[in-house]
Amino acid sequence: MGAGGPDEEEENRWPPWLKPLLKEQFFVQCKFHADSHKSECNMYCLDCMNGPLCSLCLAYHKDHRAIQIRRSSYHDVIRVSEIQKYLDISSVQTYIINSAKVVFLNERPQPRPGKGVTNTCEVCDRSLLDSFRFCSLGCKIVGTSKNFQKKNKKQSSPEKKRAAAAPAESEDSYSSSSSSSHGRNNHKIPSFTPSTPPPTAVNYRTAKRRKGIPHRAPFGVLTIEI
C-alpha cells in the first residue's frame, strides 16, 4: 500500500501557501506599524505564510516570494503577471482592470446569470466566457477536487456562443489602497457576498407615465481578455 492516501494527494496538488492566502483578510491596519501611513496590509509572503503584511513588513522578508493583493469592488484580485509565476491559473477567467490583467482570489456568486449567458462558473454560477470554467482561484480549488460534484449544465450550442462574447458584469477599478472598505469583505471560499453595482437611479415621476420605462445600464462595460 502507498504511503500517501487520497486526502494527502489532494492537498499536494496545490502549493502550501494557496489555501491560507485565500482565507486571509487584507487591507487591514498592520498591528506592528499602526503609526505609519503605509500600514495597510496588502502584501503576502509565500515563503513564510504568516498573514498579511504591510510595505514596512517587507524589510523582514528580503529574498522571499512576496505578492501584492489589489482590490476591485471590495473583492481581492492579484495580477496575472505575479501569480502565474507560482501557480497554474488555466481555466480561471481573467479580467482587464486599470489596464492590468487580474484574477479574483475568491468566488463572487450571482443571484442568476445575465441574459444570453451560455457559460457559468462550475462552482458558484457566475457568468463566464465560454473558454473558462472558474471565476476565481478559490473556485478552481473546489471545482477540481475529487469529491466535487459538477453541476448538470447543458452544452452551449454553436449559435448561442456569440452571446457569451460580452462580459456579464461591470467591475469598478481596483486600487492597492482602499481604506473605506475595511472590514467589508469575507474571504471564506464557500460563501462570499458579491459586490453588486448600485442600480441606476429611477425618476419615479417619469416611471408613472404610461410609456415611461426606466432603462438599466447595459452590461459589458468591463473589458475582459482571455
How would you characterize the overall build of this protein?
By secondary structure, the protein is largely without helices or strands. Helix content is 12%, strand content 11%. The chain has five helices and seven strands; from the N terminus they run ααβββββαββαα. The protein has helices spanning 6-11, 18-23, 80-83, 137-143, 204-207; strands at 43-45, 52-53, 66-68, 70-72, 75-79, 95-97, 100-104. It has a four-stranded antiparallel sheet with strand order 4-5-7-6. A hairpin with a 2-residue loop joins strand 6 and strand 7. The protein starts with 5 loop residues before the first helix and ends in a 19-residue tail after the last helix. It comes from Sesamum angolense. Residues 148-211 are annotated as: Disordered.
What does this entry show, briefly?
The protein is low in regular secondary structure and 226 residues long. It is built from five helices and seven strands, in the order ααβββββαββαα. It has helices spanning 6-11, 18-23, 80-83, 137-143, 204-207, and strands spanning 43-45, 52-53, 66-68, 70-72, 75-79, 95-97, 100-104.
